[in-house]
Specification:
- The protein is α+β, with helices and mostly antiparallel strands.
- It has one domain: Glycoprotein, Type 4 Pilin, CATH 3.30.700.10.
- 24% of the residues lie in helices and 14% in strands.
- The protein has 1 helix and 3 strands; from the N terminus they run H-E-E-E.
- The mean pLDDT is 91.
Length: 101
């Protein structure tokens, strides 16, 4: 695994911890990853994540992570790899994390 792939895996762990905290405080998953690092209207109890910061919202290639959730039971975070396009192999390989684990 190259250093950029390791960085993606690290970012996924940061998101996992932050999203877990958000859900504990707000009762649901955030509807946007950006809400981890700001004060969303939907959850006044949230005080911003202590894990990562706004720069974590972009993968090592500078592309925004793609986030989706049903709000209650699961979420998915995707990096489209070096080419920023779905699919691909080697350096263009996509990375995906589904939570909760």
């Amino acid at each position: 695994m190259n250093s950029l792939a390791r960085e993606v895996k690290h970012d996924f762990k940061v998101f996992e911890l932050s999203i877990k905290d958000y859900k504990e405080q707000c009762g649901q998953y955030p509807t946007q990853l950006e809400f981890l690092y700001e004060m969303p209207e939907a959850c006044k109890e949230w005080e911003k994540s202590v894990y990562g910061d706004q720069t974590t919202l972009r993968d090592p290639w500078g592309n925004p992570y793609i986030y989706s959730t049903d709000g209650r039971t699961n979420y998915k975070i995707t990096s489209l790899g070096a080419d920023g396009k779905a699919g691909g192999e080697d350096f263009d390989k996509d990375f995906e994390f589904q939570g909760p684990p």
